Amino acid sequence: MSKSIKKIGVMTSGGDAPGMNAAIRSVVRTCAFHNIECVGIYRGYEGMIEGDFKPMNARSVKGIINKGGTVLKSARSKTFMTKEGRKTAYQKLTEANIDALVTIGGDGTFTGAMVFNQEYDFPIMGIPGTIDNDIFGTSHTLGYDTALNTVVEAIDKIRDTASSHNRLFFIEVMGRDVGHIALNVGVGAGAEEILIPEEDLGLDRLLESLRRSKASGKSSSIVVVAEGDKIGKNVFELKDYVEEHMTEYEVRVSVLGHMQRGGSPSCFDRVLASRMGVKAVESLLENKTNFMVGLLHDKIALTPLDKAVKGKSEINMELLRVSDIMTT
Ligand code: F6P
């Protein structure tokens, strides 16, 4: 193991995700295991620029494996996008004798990390944490599994009221650019239709599908819509459109919003976070840098950060067909 890395900084950045705390815990304890100092950096790149650092030891992370959110707080930093901001960040890290970084976040976080590494040759490892699961090089990002379970539970509850009133519900779920959440919860909660950014179903086909559903004897329906869906209408416009063209339906909208990002992480996310934290620290100690730790075929694997950022995280199109068959 390298002698040069003696102190590692860990931070969370971008949208928080359940499992981030479990990853922080793992990074801190792996450092302790290898007798390396660890420093928590607060509010992502914002805190890095301000030098908002706190030494962490194995006991600082007790009782957080089951907590949602992030004890280190998070932010989407605009200042770090500037050269000046990154220069200040580098100065603060150097003053604090931090030799390497573990950044937990999504593609925005990794893009910042890559630029920083290019400019200052600073050793960095990324851990993917976002409920969207939109990162190439890992089958699962931290928080995704928990979010799926949270959303399915919410839809099950909406289903109760939808069927009591014979209503059609449009339910908007998170996923700016990808439909992983929508597609999986759609199948998991037995939605009649799933609208995702990867496929343009079209308004006519949506109406057709709803008519078929009604004709087959269904009295209530659930349509799951990813926030980045291709039809281009938001859930409220969809409601108006369907009500206008299908007077037989009473329609309601539910935007699940940020509740999808909260809650205690699932066992899957806790285990994944623990594995990823160990790998991130040990890879830095082996002098590896500019990689993201991911899960591929149930094995922890490294992907170069630029590939993780530029690559496309593909959704499982087979699920769309499964959904079609299930809604027969
Ligand atoms: O973290 C990903 C995500 O939750 C997206 O699904 C969503 O579009 C976005 O973050 C919301 O970001 P913010 O909390 O900054 O409004």
Instruction: Please give the largest β-sheet.
Output: 7 strands, mixed
Tell me the number of strands. 11
Q: Give the structural class.
A: alpha/beta
**CATH-derived architecture of the largest domain:** 3-Layer(aba) Sandwich
**What is the number of independent domains?**
2
Q: Oligomeric status of the shown chains?
A: single chain
Helical stretch count?
A: 11
* Strands in their spatial order, largest beta sheet: 3-2-1-4-5-10-11
Instruction: State the low-pLDDT regions, or none.
Output: none
String of helices and strands:
EHEHEHEHEHEHEHEHEHEEHH
Bound molecules: 6-O-phosphono-beta-D-fructofuranose
Overview of the structural elements:
It catalyses: beta-D-fructose 6-phosphate + ATP = beta-D-fructose 1,6-bisphosphate + ADP + H(+). It is a single chain. This protein is an alpha/beta fold and 328 residues long. It has two domains: 7-143 and 265-310, Rossmann fold; 146-261, Rossmann fold. The chain has eleven helices and eleven strands. The chain has helices spanning 20-33, 44-50, 83-95, 107-120, 144-164, 180-188, 203-215, 235-245, 267-285, 305-310, 318-326; strands at 7-12, 37-41, 53-56, 100-105, 124-128, 167-173, 193-195, 221-226, 250-255, 291-296, 299-304. Strand 4, helix 4 (107-120) and strand 5 form a beta-alpha-beta unit. Helix 1 runs parallel beside helix 9, helix 5 packs across helix 6 (180-188) and helix 6 (180-188) runs parallel beside helix 11. The mean pLDDT is 95. The site of 6-O-phosphono-beta-D-fructofuranose has 10 residues, from loops.
